[in-house]
């Protein structure tokens, strides 16, 4: 049976601006776009005139942890949370599942684990570790969207960090197969303060200083320049890294960088001791630094934004003990990517017109999905979110769809409420509730 309907709004985000338009959906595609209000007889006409119709959000940085650590977060709960937040496509990192995605066998196991659990579209990255040098080319051509590595301990023993020699060894293969290298840019040195109070956020912050990020960024840029590869710096937390990155960008279009909402929404001065719900790596830094990140955002210095959703059970987050140094480092925020950024940007001069490309068309371009996703265009996939920009909501445990309810956003009032979400033309979220399941598709990177 053909799936056909229309969506009308006075505020559709098309070609970088909000205009009055009617979207004609057939099956899983945007069949046509009509300027203004148009009724097509014989099909359902959905009138969302008081809401904003936007492309579905693309979150290119998510940890789901299935198989093996599904009790941390699984595909079912994660993709429900994504849909409720207006995210219609996500790309999952090669850790913290068990096995980690460092071989084709592990990749196949992960794809099998995702079957019948995808409520939004989902693709995957592969990983580089010291022990998979012989297997990594096979992984590169298996359909992953990039290769992720760490320059410091990942927190998961089965995903150890690599050295510069490992990155240099795989760089020609990355270049050959046109895949980006995604790097967690922290590189430790010997000049780190002694830890005296494991419950102090300030001590945790100082234990992972800005220069760790700078050390890694400089190394990564040297390798990028030497081998002319695509390099993506994930979750930048220090504003001190931007001048170095921007200087390299003057000479290449192969370097990209992201930051995450928690580095923009929260400040170190406001984080209490013994509250590792805020722990992530790199850490949330001080307000002065984060104001500089905001200035960079408004100055178009970030290529896109991602949630870096990395949840863990309460006992692993050390929520009872409050020990920052024993707690898992990761923020649970997948469901609130759009709303958290919209909220924190409202008083910063960040318009929705500027924010939306950072969450839609720009990550689509990074992933080479910009021929079918990330925009409201004729022929594109009907991945659409309906947003009430005037509505606010309180983040309570009852509305959180993540497997575990602990999140630094708990108790916050957020603006920009997602009312409906369509994935491949199917209404997965209706009136801010899950309406239809298993409408997401498995995405594989196509070989050129």
Average pLDDT taken over every residue: 97
Query: How many H/I helices?
Result: 12
CATH topology of the largest domain: TIM Barrel
Secondary-structure element string: EEEEEEHEHEEHEHEHHEHEHHEHHHEEEE
Strand fraction equals: 15-25%
Tally of structural domains: 2
Query: What top-tier CATH class of the largest domain fits best?
Result: Alpha Beta
Uncertain stretches: none
Sum up the overall morphology in one term. globular
What does this molecule look like?
With 448 residues, the protein is of the alpha/beta class. The chain has 2 domains: 4-53 and 380-434, Urease, subunit C, domain 1, CATH 2.30.40.10; 57-366, TIM Barrel (Alpha-Beta Barrel), CATH 3.20.20. It is 25% helix and 23% strand. The chain is built from 12 helices and 18 strands. It has helices spanning 75-84, 104-114, 136-140, 164-177, 201-207, 210-227, 241-249, 261-265, 287-298, 337-345, 352-359, 361-366; strands spanning 4-14, 17-26, 29-35, 44-47, 52-55, 57-62, 87-92, 121-124, 126-127, 147-150, 181-184, 231-233, 255-259, 304-305, 384-394, 413-423, 426-430, 433-434. Helix 4 (164-177) crosses helix 6 and helix 6 packs parallel to helix 7. The longest helix has 18 residues, at 210-227. It is globular, with a radius of gyration of 21 Å.
